[in-house]
Design brief:
149 residues, mainly alpha, two-stranded parallel ribbon, 2 strands
Length: 149
């Protein structure tokens, strides 16, 4: 279901402690609306940050009155490759490769060509294969966007 903010508002009114609101906060606009509706001291982001580790920074910037754009593709690529490398190092080759699949899916959710890429990516068994495939995906995406421009 959807988050229920009336109860959070009632708790804020009933206590003198700072209350943190959470649930369904997936954008700066939603964070601002939840803060206004509940009177909470802050918001907490959960699942919406999966695949978008920059989301909390975007929300913070927007609430401070500064626009924070989506990171450029090069930064997204750097973050994803670093994340995958860390997963492989921490969990080991087999488990790291399995766990990396869901994270790459979250990162690429809604992007053009993601479904086709993920179909092949999910078959890769090693970290080296995954990293190479991801580099190739970003290179091909950049090429397609350059041709379209």
């Amino acid at each position: 279901g959807l988050a229920e903010y009336d109860t959070i508002r009632a708790i804020v009114a009933a206590v003198r402690l700072p209350v943190i609101a959470n649930g369904d906060i997936d954008s700066a606009e939603k964070a601002a609306a939840v803060l206004a509706a509940t009177g909470a001291a802050a918001v907490m982001v959960g699942r919406a940050a999966q695949g978008r580790p920059w989301l909390c920074g975007q929300i913070d910037a927007a609430l401070a009155g500064t626009a924070a754009a989506q990171p450029p593709r090069a930064e997204m690529e750097r973050l994803m490759l670093g994340h995958l490398d860390a997963l492989h190092a921490f969990y080991g080759e087999a488990q790291g490769a399995r766990i990396a699949r869901k994270h790459v899916g979250w990162y690429l959710e809604g992007q053009s060509g993601a479904r086709e890429f993920l179909r092949d990516f999910h078959r890769l068994a090693t970290g080296a294969e995954q990293l190479a495939a991801l580099r190739e995906h970003f290179s091909a995406t950049a090429d397609r966007e350059a041709k379209a421009a």
